[in-house]
Design goal:
By secondary structure, the chain is α+β, with helices and mostly antiparallel strands. About 55% of the residues lie in helices and about 20% in strands.
């Protein structure tokens, strides 16, 4: 990247130097030409103030003083006087551009290259009071000759500028790339990298993405460890009990008890695997295509009836209240949410406790509330109960058969429905989990 930036800057520098040099040459030549014509005008003024006709007849300035060529032409283009050549041998000058302009506008000027292209003649002509044309000419370097003669100096300047640009482009490319290289070498301390202001949005984005990646990696690592631990417990029980039965080390009564434990551990294992697969499915999906209008009250009523037997088993009273409330979502997912919340409220309740399920509208938003009179959750644990495998009371959770993934599934589904989860809990008094569909 550094090499590419450096080459691109060098290309730009070369083009800029060439354009600058050509512009300077053009400007210099224009100024030079203007200065020559200014000199010719000055000479013309001096000649017009002198007794030009007398000087012509006496041939007083036949010499080529100051390298000037002086010519007097009649209105019909006939050369009357020239201090360099014999007028009789000269052609008619009426069609010369500077003469034609002088006859028409009172003055004219022109530049004509010589055959060698190394010199040019600069002509300036004015119309005198008697109608004659006075032309003053001077030979000077042509534009091409000036460029060729100054070429060595231009080459030296070009090389010096090129070397200077090379050093500057390397330094600039290094200053651009250096912060990025430092980030690549140590992404954990990219906040200490000093970059230019334009790089700050990129650094901030990279830092956030790096943090998210590390967080995700830690979560996956923790999840893998938790899954391994959770799977190991029932598998160890199944393996241990089955080995005792296989080796004939138990009597008939113990065999029945061990078989019951094996069956219970197997069911726990299947439940755990189902929850893990469900979480994995939710992690990899965006909003499902099967969203539709769903009556949340009707769904809650079905779920309450389904869990009534479990509530009676745990000696918990299950009650439903509310009204018909329609939300846009997945019927299957919303059923999972209600089931998991009610199942948790039953499992973590007290004997003779109650679970209140309410569906309704508040501030134009549909809500689902599941409130219990159970053990409650301490404030320090309330923010973490939706984490995977997080349990407030691990011993009680395993006794009730919970996997520690139910609320994590709820959190994912609620996020997919763009809803909010609110929790209100007091230790020893109970917990209310409210989901508001915004």
């Amino acid at each position: 990247m550094k090499k590419k930036i450096n080459l691109q800057m060098m290309y730009i520098a070369v083009l800029a130097i060439i354009a600058t040099v050509m512009t300077l040459v053009g400007v210099f030549y224009t100024l030079f030409k203007q200065e020559v014509f200014d000199d010719l005008r000055a000479y013309t003024v001096v000649l017009l103030e002198a007794d030009l006709e007398k000087m012509v007849h006496n041939k007083a300035f036949i010499s080529e003083a100051d390298g000037l060529r002086i010519t007097v032409i009649s209105p019909d283009g006939t050369v009357l006087y020239d201090n360099v050549a014999e007028p009789a041998q000269m052609t008619n000058h009426g069609e010369r551009s500077e003469i034609a302009d002088a006859i028409k506008d009172g003055k004219g000027q022109a530049v004509r290259k010589s055959e060698t292209l190394s010199e040019s003649m600069y002509y300036y002509a004015v119309k005198m009071e008697n109608g004659y044309i006075l032309r003053v000419a001077k030979q000077s370097s042509s534009a091409l000759y000036m460029i060729v003669s100054s070429l060595p100096m231009l080459v030296v300047i070009f090389v010096i500028l090129l070397l200077l640009c090379s050093v500057l482009s390397r330094a600039l490319a290094k200053s651009i790339v250096e912060p990025i290289e430092k980030i690549a070498e140590d992404m954990d301390h990219m906040d200490q990298v000093e970059g230019y202001p334009e790089l700050e949005p990129l650094l901030r984005t990279i830092s956030e993405q790096h943090t998210d990646i590390l967080k995700s990696a830690n979560m996956r690592q923790e999840f893998t460890a938790n899954v391994s631990h959770e799977l190991k417990t029932p598998l160890t029980s199944i393996s241990g009990y089955s080995e005792l039965i296989e080796n004939g080390m138990v009597n008939e009564q113990d065999a029945m008890r061990f078989g019951k434990e094996i069956h219970r551990s197997a069911n726990r294992l299947l439940t755990l695997i189902d929850d893990i697969l469900r979480l994995s499915e939710l992690d990899s999906s965006s909003q499902p295509d099967n969203f539709e209008p769903v009556d949340l009250y009707d769904l809650a009523q079905t779920c309450v009836e389904m869990l009534r037997m479990s509530a009676e088993k745990h000696k918990v009273t299950l009650q439903l209240a509310g009204q018909k409330s329609v939300v846009y979502g997945s019927r299957q997912m919303l059923d999972e949410v209600i089931y998991n919340l009610c199942d948790n409220a039953i499992r973590y309740n007290k004997e003779s406790g109650k679970v209140f399920v309410t569906v309704g509208e508040e501030d134009d938003n549909v809500f689902l509330s599941v409130r219990d009179t159970g053990i409650g959750i301490d404030k320090e644990h309330q923010e973490r109960i939706f984490e995977r495998f997080y349990r407030v009371d691990k011993s009680r959770s395993k006794e009730t058969g919970g996997t520690g993934l139910g609320l994590a599934i709820v959190k994912h589904i609620v996020a997919l429905h763009h809803a909010e989860i609110r929790i209100d809990s007091r230790v020893g008094e109970g917990t209310e989990i409210r989901i508001v569909f915004i």
